[in-house]
Design a protein that fits this description.
heterodimer; A: 416 residues; globular; B: 121 residues; alpha+beta; five-stranded mixed β-sheet; three-stranded antiparallel β-sheet; 36% strand; elongated; binds flavin-adenine dinucleotide; binds iron/sulfur cluster
């Protein structure tokens, strides 16, 4: 076993982790290691062959692999040490890390750790669909990897359950590949993916989107043969008289992403039940001092650029933490009204005067105002014609006083 | 003949669901656009819709089974499947570098197929 002391370890080399490693290196920390379990850098981006990345960070419309290569080039230029085929299997609150790698088992002791492990997909088990368990049922991201990286044909006639972005993107991809994409079924009364994807992936290819519907039964012994779909009423109850059998051999699930926080728990990192990611302050530092979190492991991002921006912040702050150990700081909670699903950061440090809040709403709203207050002081106030849960919102706030009573609020306004 | 349709503008998060009536190549009326960019978008979408095609091509290499590719410019939307057809018989071998032109001026559309990832060995 190889044992080593190190300044910063970054876990996961997706857009968030690569950005964190680059910024820590640029802040002057040399003793870094970026650890990635895959044989390649780039994370989920490598299988996202469609365009729409990099508009914010590189001011270009790039595909996922191109975006990754931009960051990889940057990483190599900045001489950031990295190790692929290196899977972190354990960490603890003392910042000791165990890694399984080609060189054998590594044991690292870090001054700071950046968590950037991304997310995993919700599966059928989590949904509890009754019926048989035939082959032909994939999560959308697994299907994406099989088609785009393994060059496999996954079936002929496809139904997609859930209107998340990955599912919409796969609907288009499979249609172009010559498969029959019969429909997308969504239990909510609105599409949960971005409008851009609804238009360019479904409308463009005449793929029907059935809202307020779900799959209630699955048929087939070895391979999927058909499924039964039905509509739901406003209360979400199944309307059995609408049940319809749809013959198909493939079902994709695009029903949500969950931050990958098994390791975080081992390091005694406190999680937020709303994001299922770590609870962090405005430095994206968790309750375990010296452990930072960024990208999809912190909260689900719809745009890779923002995951990278969070990574840059995490790397910069981890670099500061290596140089000086902070004394005790007070952290004030950020609160929000019930229409706000979550706010990141959840806490703001007593010396912070300026920060950015990221939040999502619980459901679509029209003609509303978002207001951010700090006690009696209004820090932000803006009208939105439309606000969707699929889109993460970002608001910069600043004050010359401590941000100790920040409250994010949604106010319904009269129609303009 | 005057025709009507709905177009969702995707240029900004407002995503205006616009009602358009048009005749030939002329927009007669546009409703529910919250800013002038909506009209420009509707005109493009109605009379000259274009998209970037992204796909993969099988490759012989040490590790990778595919290389991802794209058109370097948007192409007319109704030619997506024709261009895809051109890709389906293609086979590559490493090395391929990001940006390498794989098919120049595909089907005379003025766009080329380029690699979007490097597969070096
Ligand atoms: C299908 C799909 C389509 C998308 N489309 C777009 C789009 O069009 N435009 C856009 O801007 N954004 C898009 N996104 C969002 C964007 O890709 C993500 O927000 C971004 O990739 C998140 O980056 P990340 O670094 O947090 O996670 P990831 O990219 O998932 O990277 C996490 C990395 O950590 C590694 N890892 C995990 N655990 C360990 C461990 N224990 N040890 C070592 N390594 C580990 C993983 O192997 C992985 O490489 C899309 C996402 C998906 C899934
Ligand atoms: S019309 Fe203007 S306001 Fe409406 S979505 Fe397009 S760009 Fe945005």
């Amino acid at each position: 076993m190889i044992e080593k002391d190190i300044d910063i370890a970054v876990i996961g080399a997706g857009p968030a982790g690569m950005a964190a490693a680059i910024s820590a290196r640029e802040k002057g920390v040399k003793d870094i290691i970026l650890l990635e379990r895959n044989p390649f850098l780039g994370g989920i981006l490598i299988q996202c062959i469609h365009d729409g990345f990099g508009l914010h960070l590189f001011d270009q419309n790039l595909t996922g692999p191109e975006y990754a290569e931009e960051l990889i080039q940057h990483l190599i230029k900045a001489k950031v040490p990295f190790l692929t085929e290196a899977m972190v299997i354990d960490i603890n609150a003392q910042k000791e890390i165990r890694v399984v790698s080609r060189q054998g088992l590594l044991k690292l002791k870090a001054k700071a750790i950046v968590l950037a492990m991304g997310c995993r997909e919700r599966t059928r088990g989590a949904l509890e669909i009754p019926g048989t368990r035939p082959a032909g049922i994939f999560t959308a991201g697994v299907a994406q990897s099989l088609v785009n990286l393994q060059n496999l044909k996954i079936g002929k006639e496809v139904v997609i359950l859930g209107s998340g972005d990955v599912g919409l993107i796969m609907a288009r991809r499979l249609k172009i590949e010559g498969l029959k994409v019969l429909r997308v079924i969504e239990k909510l009364p609105y599409c949960s993916g971005l409008v851009r994807n609804r238009v360019q992936c479904l409308r463009d290819y005449d793929i029907p989107l059935h809202l307020s519907s779900t799959v209630i039964d699955i048929h087939g012994k070895d391979r999927l043969e058909a499924l039964t779909a039905a509509q739901l009423n406003e209360k979400g109850e199944i309307l059995y008289d609408t049940a319809e059998v749809i013959p198909c051999d493939t079902l994709l699930l695009s029903v949500g992403l969950i931050p990958e926080n098994e390791l975080s728990r081992k390091a005694e990192v406190r999680l937020d039940w709303r994001t299922l990611g770590a609870e962090v302050d405005d430095y994206v530092e968790t309750n375990t001092p010296g452990i930072f979190s960024c990208g999809n492991v912190l909260h689900i991002h719809d745009v890779a650029d923002y995951a990278s921006q969070e990574g840059f912040l995490a790397g910069e702050r981890a670099a500061c933490r290596v140089r000086e150990n902070q004394g005790k700081v007070l952290r004030f909670p950020v609160n929000a009204s019930k229409e706000i699903k979550y706010v990141v950061p959840q806490l703001i440090r007593e010396d912070c005067r300026e920060t950015e809040l990221k939040f999502r709403v619980t459901e679509p709203f029209e003609n509303i105002r978002i207001i951010v207050k700090n006690g009696g002081e209004t820090l932000f106030r803006k009208k939105f014609l439309k606000i969707m849960p699929s889109e993460m919102n970002m608001v910069k706030i600043s004050s010359d006083k401590p941000l100790d009573k920040v409250y994010v609020e949604l106010e319904k306004t009269e129609i303009a | 003949m005057v025709k009507n349709c709905n177009i969702i503008c995707i240029l900004c998060p407002n995503c205006c669901d616009m009602r358009v009536s048009f005749e030939g190549k002329e927009i007669l009326e546009l409703e529910d656009a919250r800013c002038p960019r909506g009209l420009e978008y509707a005109r493009e979408e109605l009379f000259n819709p274009t998209r970037t095609l992204t796909s993969t091509v099988p490759i012989k290499s040490h590790y990778w089974k595919t290389v991802s590719v794209r058109t370097n410019k948007p192409i007319p939307k109704d030619r997506i499947f024709d261009v895809y057809e051109q890709l389906s018989s293609m086979r590559l071998a490493a090395p391929v570098k990001r940006g390498d032109v794989l098919i120049e001026n595909v089907l005379g559309l003025g766009a080329s197929i380029i690699a979007t990832r490097s597969v070096l060995e």
